[in-house]
Amino acid sequence: xxxxxxxxxxxxxxxxxxxxxxxxxxxxxxxxxxxxxxxxxxxxxxxxxxxxxxxxxxxxxxxxxxxxxxxxxxxxxxxxxxxxxxxxxxxxxxxxxxxxxxxxxxxxxxxxxxxxxxxxxxxxxxxxxxxxxxxxxxxxxxxxxxxxxxxxxxxxxxxxxxxxxxxxxxxxxxxxxxxxxxxxxxxxxxxxxxxxxxxxxxxxxxxxxxxxxxxxxxxxxxxxxxxxxxxxxxxxxxxxxxxxxxxxxxxxxxxxxxxxxxxxxxxxxxxxxxxxxxxxxxxxxxxxxxxxxxxxxxxxxxxxxxxxxxxxxxxxxxxxxxxxxxxxxxxxxxxxxxxxxxxxxxxxxxxxxxxxxxxxxxxxxxxxxxxxxxxxxxxxxxxxxxxxxxxxxxxxxxxxxxxxxxxxxxxxxxxxxxxxxxxxxxxxxxxxxxxxxxxxxxxxxxxxxxxxxxxxxxxxxxxxxxxxxxxxxxxxxxxxxxxxxxxxxxxxxxxxxxxxxxxxxxxxxxxxxxxxxxxxxxxxxxxxxxxxxxxxxxxxxxxxxxxxxxxxxxxxxxxxxxxxxxxxxxxxxxxxxxxxxxxxxxxxxxxxxxxxxxxxxxxxxxxxxxxxxxxxxxx
Length: 619
Ligand SMILES: Cc1cc2nc3c(=O)[nH]c(=O)nc-3n(C[C@H](O)[C@H](O)[C@H](O)COP(=O)(O)OP(=O)(O)OC[C@H]3O[C@@H](n4cnc5c(N)ncnc54)[C@H](O)[C@@H]3O)c2cc1C
Fold this sequence. Notes:
Layout: E1 5-8, H1 12-23, E2 28-32, E3 46-48, H2 52-61, H3 66-72, E4 74-80, E5 90-95, H4 97-109, E6 114-118, E7 121-127, E8 130-136, E9 141-143, E10 146-149, E11 158-161, E12 164-167, H5 179-185, E13 190-197, E14 200-202, E15 212-214, E16 237-241, H6 244-252, H7 258-261, H8 275-281, E17 289-294, E18 301-305, H9 313-321, E19 331-333, E20 336-343, E21 360-362, H10 372-391, H11 404-414, H12 439-449, H13 455-475, E22 478-479, H14 484-491, E23 501-502, H15 503-507, H16 514-520, H17 529-540, H18 542-559, H19 577-586, H20 591-595, H21 602-618
Parallel strand pairs: 1-2, 1-10, 2-6, 10-21
Antiparallel strand pairs: 3-5, 4-5, 7-8, 8-9, 11-12, 11-20, 13-20, 14-18, 14-19, 15-16, 16-17, 17-18, 22-23
Helix pairs in contact: 1-10, 2-10, 2-12, 6-9, 12-13, 13-17
Flavin-adenine dinucleotide (FAD) binds at residues 8-14, 31-34, 37, 42-43, 120-121, 150-154, 170, 176, 179, 195-197, 272, 338, 364-365, 370-372, 375.
């Protein structure tokens, strides 16, 4: 059977990848171990959060699915860091994980050019250094010109609960036991990673009476620019805390904790630690905050955010019962750790194509990341690039100045890592530029150019550009000392310049807001509030943004100095041995990427710069 693209895995990476290739008009096959794992939220029933919210809006701006489906299945949402600067504000939504799966499955089942088959991929078939097909465990061969591997946490995965170990995927799904060998045969270096999830308890067995409630927020931005009706907050979350009894239980049973007995060998995500790791690592803390989050409207299951563990079941039960409000909690699902195979992501180009096999792309947790959002971000790029590969056109490489997606992939393919990679705002040097509110302004044009942004989305984007231009025109009007604006300044004891100033200039004053201007400029009511806020942010940060633009253009200079992927760095005199080894291992595509490789010093970059110049002159 012939396809253009075969996508292995229906998780958050696979869904974005197959949606992109099918929507771009290419015959696509989606292989999955289990149709019920389509877009399955294996762990926290939420999408977004710090930096992750930005990733979701970026996937949306490029024409992806996660933003639209997250808004459609939101049951509560909040803007994190709302009181802080725009650069660190991120949307986080509690998601109905049951309907997220069913609605995503429905979208994919109705997508032209896409076939979905429940089968285990066992081998990637390569001919003359290029992908030629995929073989299933049932020995069915699917021919294809490109293949995207998005196998998540399933490769040779096993779950661990105390000394109970079982070859299994998450949530009782089967694991994938055959494909890793095929990847090793193709030259992939394999790492062993782990992650963990908490218990699920029955809601009716929780005493909420003394627990702090956490409500959702209204009038906040959506994930998707295509969402017309903002989702409503229909559930509450609750807070509880660990206490000395919980900590005592954990410390007294560390000899039964697989993380400490050595039963778990895989490296876990530093920023999503298990509760036993938190109690040991932060011994000075007398309590850790936990969130009780409903998993879906159609179930009583409650997820305890921050309480993942792999302790034996009986200890888990005592740990849960030590928590306020959960003294009589009924545990429906045990917590567990899961270990799985991941690849060394520095073996990939920034296009997510494998360096040793043309047409083979890798996306998601199998690349060593952790998180639905990180997976979706890689899936959409891999999907677009599989199509560009087939077309023989330039592939999409997003710069660190364009997006968190660009930062994520650049970090993956440039920096070797020994633990799962989670996106954080601190990783993005241009984060003031990479805000959640302007993802479309940064990426929709690119998504259009690469063929994934359809007419609906593009016209919505053009409409927004038009709105922003019109709002700027209105705000560029200048006001004198007798104006309504001057009165607002007076009310706020803010000196109004005798030479007057424009509304836009006024917005740069910390005390003047777009809400103030709305009271004196009724014309502004004709425009969406989100667009008014966009202009407000642009004005308020204009100074910082201009400085960042200078940094970006300077950095771009070294990004534009291309390096030959076949260069032998051991031949370059003056380069330190460590740098020669690292450069030969990573084979950076430009000087900028070379400068971000750990172990390559600025002095090495200076040597390389001179070498490149000499080479050019010689040529
Ligand atoms: C127990 C657990 C705890 C987690 N904790 C966190 C956390 O705390 N924080 C966080 O950010 N993220 C966490 N995650 C991770 C999060 O679930 C993943 O990041 C995300 O789901 C990765 O998406 P993905 O698309 O890469 O892979 P997945 O969602 O894992 O999907 C992989 C897909 O590949 C399919 N598949 C695999 N192998 C084959 C094969 N050979 N043939 C056919 N199909 C195949 C599977 O059926 C599945 O559909 C956790 C996950 C688990 C399981």
